Amino acid sequence: MTKLILSLDGSVLREFSLDKESTSIGRRAHCDIHIDNLAISGEHAVIVHKLGDAILQDLDSTNGTFVNGQQIKKHLLVDGDVIGLGKYRLKYFSEATTLTRRADVQDSLRRELAGQSPAPLVGKRSGEITLPEGQDVVGAEAPPLPLAELEVLDGANAGARLQLTKARSVIGKPAAEAAAIDRRPSGYFLVYLAGDSQPLLNGKALQEHERALADRDEIELAGVRMTFRITA
Questions:
Q1: Which of 38-42, 159-163, 174-178, 219-223 has the lowest mean pLDDT?
Q2: Quick check: 217 and 229 in contact, CB under 8 A?
């Protein structure tokens, strides 16, 4: 379940369930989240659900849309994010992210047990999983995730390497073009965060909101090329 809690000056005004594919926010009466205040544009922002995630997008509003105090154009919402619209605040709550990620892991394990390859762990196997008869894969332990890094290929920081040890490593500029490398139990994923154009993966636009990464994949963001490498 995902929801937003609207508040003003610390006082809770209303709670909204995000149970639609698209949720509009603005001053106009037809908006799903209607805020009747001149600081809010008629159609200020929208939240779109895609691939299990909620993406907040500013609709060229007059006063801008902010998340955790930083102005955004597009932003992947995570549990606890606070959206700022003028003096109003919308706090985002979600159990879906955790449940979706858990489902991803389960699906990856099921495919691994069946000898299938559509959802590999970073493009290569990392050992077999043996379960006692009758045991469900929910209780299985995923193979250890290998270490990985990004190497910058050109630009002022050519040769620099970023060790991908965090759950999320952000690359680019959040206020302009940005992406992230997510480190999950099921592998490493390139995730689009913000910008007018999608990052390139092996020379092609990402198109989807996120894609699993394989060893030696090439990423291009804001004209800078980087290589994803498995290091151990």
A1: 174-178
A2: no
Q: What is the pTM of this model?
A: 0.45
Dig out the tokens for 209 from the structure: 């909101």
Q: Would you state the structure tokens that stand for residue 186, as one six-digit string?
A: 């099921």
Q: Are 10 and 33 in contact (CB under 8 A)?
A: no
Distance CA 180, CA 193 (A): 7
- Residue-level pLDDT at 95: 65
Q: Where are the alpha helices (DSSP H) in 47-90?
A: none
- Retrieve residue 111's tokens: 């495919």
**What is the token pair recorded at 219?**
């990423």
Q: What are the tens digits of pLDDT across the range 124-146?
A: 333 333 333 333 334 334 457 88
Judge whether 71 and 62 are in contact, CB under 8 Å. Answer: no
The closest alpha carbon to 189, from 204, 203, 169, 174, belongs to 169
User: Who's near 229: CB < 8 A, 6+ residues apart?
Assistant: 148, 149, 150, 151, 215, 216
- Structure tokens, 64: 């801008």
Q: What is the pLDDT of residue 158?
A: 87
First to last CA, the chain: 37
Please name every residue paired with 70 in a beta bridge, in sequence order, or none if there are none. Answer: 67
Which residues are paired to 50 by β-bridges?
A: 53
